[in-house]
Design brief:
Four Helix Bundle (Hemerythrin (Met), subunit A); 73% helix; three-stranded antiparallel beta sheet; single chain; Arc Repressor Mutant, subunit A; 9 helices
């Protein structure tokens, strides 16, 4: 069970999780009073949480219209991919050096769950497991700042992914194959191969964005 420092953190976490899990979808209006009633709190911590999420660009305050879940553009995603590449390269590099046998087993288990959800067509659940894999890899790197940055960018992509990827059978097979190769390279401590796979994965994501623009 997640423990929170106080009511403000609890409310912030609950709203952010609804965004990341797409319970609140991009472009959807957010009503302070409804969330306050559902969480059984006053509107004050809800308003404070929303202001924090506005600063993090998960939420937008549209003048004379209200508060809405942010709609992330393809251009914003492309810029974030540059940052993600730098972070992921460092993360897998450190993971190769530090991961232990127990962590390898846990990482493989997460991958198997991800693979199963992808094959079953449960893409939102698969995207959550994909994010969990990358967060776990960052955790094994034993660098709190890096882990925090990876978590932030994973939140961003987890929020946007179901609405930016149009899955086909070929894309599903490619995603499973790429993740399997990454896990294998980490578990064999092949740093060069792991970095190569991360770079290819980011380029594949760029290609997906280009395909969407062409449609």
């Amino acid at each position: 069970m997640v423990k929170f420092a106080g009511l403000k953190e609890y409310v912030y976490h609950e709203i952010k999780q609804r965004l990341i899990n797409n319970t609140i979808k991009p472009g959807e209006r957010i009503w302070e009073e409804e969330i306050a009633a559902e969480l059984e709190v006053s509107r004050t911590p809800v308003r404070e949480a929303i202001n924090r999420l506005i600063a993090e660009e998960f939420v937008e305050n549209r003048p004379r219209k209200g508060i809405f879940a942010a709609e992330i553009s393809k251009e914003e995603l492309r810029k974030m991919l540059d940052i993600r590449l730098a972070l992921e390269v460092l993360s897998v590099s450190q993971c190769c050096k530090l991961i232990n046998d127990e962590e390898m087993d846990e990482l493989k288990a997460i991958f198997e769950s991800y693979k199963r959800k992808m094959e079953e067509g449960e893409y939102e659940k698969a995207s959550q497991l994909d994010s969990k894999m990358h967060r776990f890899i960052a955790k094994t790197a034993d660098n709190k700042k890096l882990e925090a940055y990876i978590n932030d960018i994973q939140d961003f992509f987890a929020y946007s992914r179901p609405y930016t990827v149009k899955w086909t059978e070929a894309k599903v097979k490619r995603a499973i194959k790429d993740h399997k190769e990454l896990i294998d390279s980490l578990c064999s401590r092949d740093e060069e191969k792991a970095i190569e796979i991360v770079k290819e994965d980011i380029e594949a994501m760029r290609d997906l964005l280009k395909e969407d623009n062409a449609e």
